[in-house]
Specification:
This protein is α/β, with parallel strands linked by helices. The protein has helices spanning 7-22, 38-45, 61-76, 87-97, 113-116, 119-131, 146-154, 175-185, 191-201, 205-213, 219-226, 236-245, 249-260, 266-272, 279-287, 314-324, 327-331, 335-365, 410-423, and strands spanning 26-31, 51-55, 103-108, 137-143, 166-169, 292-295, 308-311, 368-376, 379-390, 395-401, 429-435. The protein has three domains: 7-169, P-loop containing nucleotide triphosphate hydrolases (Rossmann fold), CATH 3.40.50.300; 236-332, Arc Repressor Mutant, subunit A, CATH 1.10.10; 366-439, no CATH class. The longest helix is centred in the last third of the chain and has 31 residues, at 335-365.
């Protein structure tokens, strides 16, 4: 699959690179979840320029440095002393070299130094402070363990706090990019195929690439490709999250499993987990791990107790719903049964994701100042899928989302809208609409 999108991120990386080469050294941090395309983006931005790329594997410091020396020598066509066995010495050598010549230095999986030698960060801080103003290196570091990268650069007690000139957090592909990819790789796609691509991958580039490279871009094709022996998706959710949570992942997995199954308020989650208190885990899943979001009815006050939790990442949501929940079928390699379960569930499962799709579509139009849902905690009859407040004063749009437009009942929505106007939007001019697969 060719390189898609990332226009603004590429422009920013190249702007910083130009400043680094012509003024003095800059440090850029690129973060984002695993498979989001951090390395591809960074390497695209440095194409054709002198660049050292160092991947921090989980090895001893001396072994890493022994591997880095020939990489540096080859990339910059320089002699590197073989006795440099500490990363501190190697980094100082590179910063001294950058005094006389500009180059890019990319350090991938930067957070792994925590497992190798955490003092590397304070060593780098000291060397960076000494050489930053007189050298011309474009230092770009990236890492896929979000919580650790956030700690390294944004916690005030860490040595590299305040040293990053820019922090770029990569997001998934937007909807227009997903459509472009679908047109390029599956020109005859129907909207249900596009919804499946969105529902299963959430626009994560690596997952999209796997489907494209294997010609699996229909609903059934994607399900068959994911649910099979030796599928790259089988353990992806676990591998992704165990890295973040560490050895205490079991409670987090239970919380995420509950939320993925529609148990989405704190009392319901705690009841499902045997009355175990999970307030701390929910807070960390939002603030430290960036995996779930706290949803309140639109225009609800920040302190409102009417709260639902949602998994932000479509793939993780899908993984917990099917791979984790039906682990027993995977263990006995009954992929036929699991495929049948997913195909039977798909119309219902994707209906909720269609609502999320349209919220993103609204957001990407830049025509609204607030987008959300509305509900009352004790009256689910009046729940409304999407309420979007327009930039124009006192104008709103209320949306009922249905996969098939024929299932839309205008009179029911009209009654909900009257209730909503009375409760929340008495001075608003409210437009109502049904959005379906046809409107994607």
């Amino acid at each position: 699959m060719r390189f898609y999108n990332r226009t603004s991120e590429l422009a920013e990386l190249r702007r910083i690179q130009n400043l680094s080469f012509n003024d003095h050294s800059r440090l850029t941090v690129v973060t984002g979840r695993r498979r989001i395309g951090k390395t591809s983006l960074i390497m695209k931005s440095v194409e054709g320029l002198p660049t050292v790329y160092l991947f921090v594997g989980r090895k001893s410091e001396a072994t890493l440095c022994a591997e880095f020396i020939p990489v540096i020598a080859r990339s910059l066509d320089v002699f590197v002393p073989g006795e440099l066995r500490a990363f501190r010495s190697l980094f100082q050598y590179l910063m001294e070299l950058a005094v006389s010549r500009p180059f890019n230095l990319v350090i991938d999986e930067f957070q792994e130094f925590y497992n190798i030698n955490a003092s590397v960060y304070s060593d780098m801080q000291n060397i960076w402070d000494i050489y930053r103003e007189k050298s011309r290196v474009n230092l770009v570091v990236s890492g896929s363990i979000y919580s650790l990268m956030q700690k390294i650069f944004q916690h005030s007690k860490e040595p590299l706090f305040g040293r990053a000139d820019n922090i770029i957090k990569l997001s998934a592909f937007d909807l227009s990019t997903l459509k472009e990819i679908a047109r390029d790789h599956h020109p005859e796609y129907v909207n249900d195929d596009l919804l499946a691509l969105y529902s299963f991958t959430g626009g994560i580039p690596k997952y999209v690439e796997l489907f494209c490279d294997n010609g699996a871009l229909s609903v059934d094709g994607m399900i068959s490709f994911m649910i099979r022996d030796n599928s790259p998706f089988t353990d992806e959710g676990k591998n992704l999250l165990v890295e973040e949570f560490g050895k205490n992942y079991a409670v987090y997995f239970s919380v995420l499993s509950a939320i993925s199954g529609g148990i989405n308020t704190q009392p319901e989650i705690e009841a499902a987990l045997g009355d175990k208190s999970v307030g701390g885990q929910l807070k960390r899943l939002i603030e430290d791990y960036n995996i779930i979001t706290r949803q309140r009815p639109i225009l609800a006050k920040e302190g409102s107790q009417t709260v639902r939790y949602e998994i932000e990442d479509n793939f993780i949501r899908f993984w917990f719903n099917y791979f984790d929940r039906h682990r027993s079928l995977i263990e006995i390699k009954n992929f036929v049964a699991l495929q049948a379960i997913i195909k039977a569930d798909y119309p219902t499962y994707s209906g909720k994701l269609l609502e999320r799709y349209f919220k993103e579509q609204f957001a990407e139009s830049f025509q609204y100042r607030a987008i959300g849902s509305w509900w009352e905690p004790k009256d689910r009859q009046n729940e409304i899928d999407i309420v979007a407040l327009k930039l124009e004063k006192n104008q709103a749009i209320v949306v009922e989302v249905k996969r098939q437009r024929k299932n839309f009942k205008p009179e029911l929505l009209a009654a909900k809208v009257e209730h909503l106007k009375h409760k929340l939007l008495p001075k608003y001019r409210v437009e109502t609409v049904c959005l379906s697969l046809d409107d994607m």
